[in-house]
Structures are given as C-alpha cells and as structure tokens.
Design goal:
binds 5-nitro-6-ribityl-amino-2,4(1H,3H)-pyrimidinedione
Amino acid sequence: MAAKAYEGKLVAPAEARFAVVVSRFNEFVTSRLLGGALDAFSRHGVAEDNVEVVWSPGSFEIPLIAQRLAGSGRYAAVVCLGAVIRGGTDHHQYIASEAAKGIAQVALKTGVPCVFGVLTCDSIEQAIERAGAKSGNKGADAAVAAIEMANLFSQLPGAGAGS
Ligand code: INI
C-alpha cells in the first residue's frame, strides 16, 4: 500500500508573506543572522515585498512580537532570530528558555509556523561561527525551514492563518 505522504518543498507558496522578528541585543551577531535569512528568502524566489522585518529589544520579547504577527493572519510563517550568549550569571538561561518556550507556544496557539533561529551560545566566538562563519548561518537555515513549513502547510488539510 502506498500511503499518501506530505512533504514540504523548499518553494514558497505563491504570494506567501513571511515575517522576521530579530533581536537588537547582540546586534553584531543578529544582523548577520538577518542578512542570512533575507539572502535565503531571496535565493528561494521570495519577493522582497513579501518579507517584513520587525526588531525586538531582546530575545525575551520575541515571543510577544511573534504572537502579534502570527495572530494577524498576514504571514505564512514567522522567523525568530536572536543571540543569547552566556554571561557571568545565569541570566541568559532564563532568556533562552523563555524565548524557546514562548516561540513554541505562539506557534501552537496560533497555528502559524514560528521558526526558532535564536542562537544559545557559551561564547561570542560560538555565536559568530553560527552567524555566517564556519558553522553556516542559522538565520539562513531558519528562513529555509520557514519556507518548508509554509509549503507543507499549504498542502496539509485544515488550512490555518496566512496559508
Ligand atoms: N537578550 C538577548 O537577546 N541575548 C542575551 O544574551 C541577553 N542577555 O544575556 O542579557 C539578552 N538580554 C535582554 C533580554 O532579552 C530583554 O530584552 C531584557 O531583559 C528586557 O526585558
């Protein structure tokens, strides 16, 4: 028996709009994640007019902004970009875990794919490596995941917001 299978292609549905929420905290890293995400959208044929960028003060605030955007019904997916880097205290752990939990909750609550492109690193070097140096660009990876999810959701039964 050949069961029907669904699989997202790396092709954005026609006229699909994407939102990118990007944290200003550690901007020297996050601006590179944003550059990677915008480049990936462009190289996958998403028109510049169909990508909108919203700056967040820090990664902690990303979920609330993502919720507003996802709830608008305007976007096929929301890409969340930030860089949480370990400091001298455990402050960064609270920020990273709230960002991760919050972004997941927004996706589940709204039904709109919200992609986790928040780096959680022990050092600035690790963050730079993941923002366009030797470990690739996690912003680009997040944009590609958003395209895949938008494509998958355009096929799956039970269309949600933005699809
Ligand atoms: N925000 C980050 O995005 N990354 C960090 O590493 C970070 N650290 O470590 O402090 C950070 N703090 C700011 C935080 O996200 C909030 O903007 C702030 O606490 C105000 O709510």
